[in-house]
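Table S5 (text form). Sequence records supplied for joint modeling of the four-component complex.
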Amino acid sequence: MTAASPSEIMTIVASRLLSNGTICFVGIGIPSKAANLARLTHAPDLVLIYESGTIGARPEVFPLSIGDGELATTADTVVSTTEIFSYWLQGGRVAVGFLGAAQVDRFANLNSTVIGNYDSPKVRLPGAGGAPEIAALAAETFVIIEHDKRKLVEKVDFVTSAGFLDGGDSRQQRGIRNSGPSVIITDLCCFRPHAETKELTVTQLHPGVTREQVRNATGWSVKFADEIFETEPPTETELDTLRDLEHRTELAHRGSGA
Amino acid sequence: MTAASPSEIMTIVASRLLSNGTICFVGIGIPSKAANLARLTHAPDLVLIYESGTIGARPEVFPLSIGDGELATTADTVVSTTEIFSYWLQGGRVAVGFLGAAQVDRFANLNSTVIGNYDSPKVRLPGAGGAPEIAALAAETFVIIEHDKRKLVEKVDFVTSAGFLDGGDSRQQRGIRNSGPSVIITDLCCFRPHAETKELTVTQLHPGVTREQVRNATGWSVKFADEIFETEPPTETELDTLRDLEHRTELAHRGSGA
Amino acid sequence: MSKYSPLADAIQTHISDGDCVALEGFTHLIPFAAGHEIIRQRIRDLTLVRMTPDLIYDQIIGMGCARKLIFSWGGNPGVGSLHRFRDAVENQYPNEIEIDERSHAAMAASYAAAASGLPFGLLRGFVGSDLLAHNPNLKSIDCPYTGERLATVPAIRPDVAIIHAQQADRVGNVHLWGIVGVQKEIALAAKRVIVTVEEIVDKLDAPPNACVIPAWVVTAISHVPRGAKPSYAHGYYERDNEFYRSWDAISRSRDKFSAWMNQHIMRESFETLHGEPML
Amino acid sequence: MSKYSPLADAIQTHISDGDCVALEGFTHLIPFAAGHEIIRQRIRDLTLVRMTPDLIYDQIIGMGCARKLIFSWGGNPGVGSLHRFRDAVENQYPNEIEIDERSHAAMAASYAAAASGLPFGLLRGFVGSDLLAHNPNLKSIDCPYTGERLATVPAIRPDVAIIHAQQADRVGNVHLWGIVGVQKEIALAAKRVIVTVEEIVDKLDAPPNACVIPAWVVTAISHVPRGAKPSYAHGYYERDNEFYRSWDAISRSRDKFSAWMNQHIMRESFETLHGEPML
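The corresponding structure-token record, covering 1074 residues in total, follows.
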């Protein structure tokens, strides 16, 4: 078996953070990959909720879209999109919101709206989707993002979903009641918010990754926690399961276009 | 065939007011009888909505309760009670709200809450149920009530559901947007609100009923319209269909307790 | 991780004196067996919540378990009054009962608000009704867009919701169908949820958009066949309309009511009356 | 009383230049065929509404039919950007497009409010988000009970909603299942409703609590098998993920997009591309 790629490590590390039985509201893409990997390894009773209304989905392959038929077929129940946001997310049923973004900043604010100015953007991104409310209403959120200077920035161009805003207690001051982002997982490391300043601080490095690498790939003058953990390397089971899933997904999505 | 009883005439007259294709929100009891009679005679495409969430119910027997299984089994669809009030009634989908009450007054206000004082009532009645919103949100309402001095009163002890309040434009002044009660059907006659004062005025007498009878059975000094129509006697079809229904209902409800 | 337990245990563990409890069911699937267990356990000072309090609430109130009722229509459907409820309101017998009275639309909005994690529900409600003057909980706000005045009701978040359903699987995922009323809403509005079910199945064969309540929302579940009798369970048994009619005479007199309750609910089991025994 | 008509007639009769139109579908049952008909009829100045504008909105925008978009997520799911949408926002090509941007929860609340006859929806939404500063439609109110500040969104009441469903009966009662998104809400929110369906059946065999839209809510209905291609219809055909992927390259260049649209939508029929012809 070839060694795990940085992207595979990121997915595997993220999956480990989801404990069995957790109710998890999953964004599409890598969050969905990580959540399903967790479900197929150490957390068989992880409950996956997608904003398309599928509760308890158990897809056999990664969905390409958040509303793939695979999600509905394998779910315990499928409710309207209205209901998923009102009764389930806003109703306080979700323990972990699992999000991606185009940019994350030093205080864990997320941008998925525009690069540049809102009224005349350099790049118009898809937009908020469910993220602002997932970020504000799940008990806590995990964020997963590729480690890149243009993605991990000092200040996001647009706060789509509030992290710790300007740091300190500014999130609480604005009336947001949940605890917010508890971890940012990248392909190099994990950040966690500093207990008081809420600045994202490196707490964990993936195997073989140096502080220098992290510094060079981060858009702010990055701080490291006093104690840094080294990520356990992927187990064979984790890597096998992930690659199997990727392979099945590849075949399934290639086939369905006929 | 024996002649129609006053109560049968009341039901039949009420049924005639429902034209085919109308979307009708039906209260239990005589409103439900009248609506189903209409459906089985001249208005086969009458759409019956019950507050239990059944849309397009076509019961073979009169339901005893508003949530009888018969309603669900024969309906086009069954939605939650939350949805029936929000999307269907409040959403403006209902043309006719069909209500009963314990008391109706001179300005068509309905009482189904208490006889006497609210805080120490002589008789505690079941209460509002869906009536206040049916009365305010169906495009118009029909009210059916037995003609009795204690039921047709000068002023209701408690306004459960607003009719024309103090008459004139007081209903509009309070911000109620629909047109309100358009007819009160009793076992003696029909009242309609006067165009300006909104006082309930007799516009129609059932076969053989005298003005004197109406005066004696009404709790206020009752006015008669310039032109009074005489109710067409029940046709054989109407009476047959109604009695058939009553008979089937009797058998069905006796049977189900086994 | 089984959440199954005998009904008596579920009631004893999760309901205490003074709790706010909703046994919901819109004519259909009314959790009678659970209500009887509350009475047998002589739980006291309950705040009872329900859109359509009917016979089971008449019994709970008549047996002196309730101190307050939040409701919108309290009657014996198609028959008439609830005499024990009336006796409590009109004569404070067996005890005074406080009431918080709303309309159906307002109750539904209160439940939906709680299920949605909102402090209040918004509706076009009870304009011109005297309910407004008698219930300080009914308020209004101005629309920030049109300036229209709209009605508001506070969310209702009971300590315990009890519902009866047709089926559950072995994990405790619950499936109900037919007239589903506000059961999903009350289950999601409450802090704890007790479910009784007609049947336990290996696998719920629920249609994709059915009314399913996932096991992880349920606090405790009990297998109680005929647990909704004398109301009905769509697909299992019909409504016992005769019993509803006979209740009028039973409940009209205090003595007759007491005797009936002692015989059928307190001493013997209700099931002698309504068919096969509960498990 | 049949409401059935050919799709082209339904679009021509019920949609005019300048209308506010919502073609809804959360990945599933997206009414592509109806969108293509809008393009072929060169309807202009539309206000487009949708939670998840995807390829069909990219096409409508790219062909110059839209002047405004109310939305919450505009992308090619699992693939990336909508290049025609981006070109309109970033470069005003083929024309300037005004945007009213909300979150999913806010859009859903806007639809539900309109379906419920309310002027606004209430939610715990977008606190701390810059969306608030850029969209004057997003406001807030104080809870009359707790004093908490809550978010509000104005109701969205489109002139026309278009949805695709699996089945309808001959009268026009519509049944959809699987991921039903906000289709019932938008159908009830809009002034007029156009439905396209996969199949006409003699009798809907819908479960009791299924997502059914009664015929009397529907303005016009058209039988359009494969009318959701390249999205999918649960139980009929799968999502054409390959097409979604290939759209990225087609839509990236203005010329390539124009050529493709002319060939597949304007001149030939889309169905040559996606299988059996429409009826």
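Note: Chain D has two domains: 7-99+160-272, 104-154.
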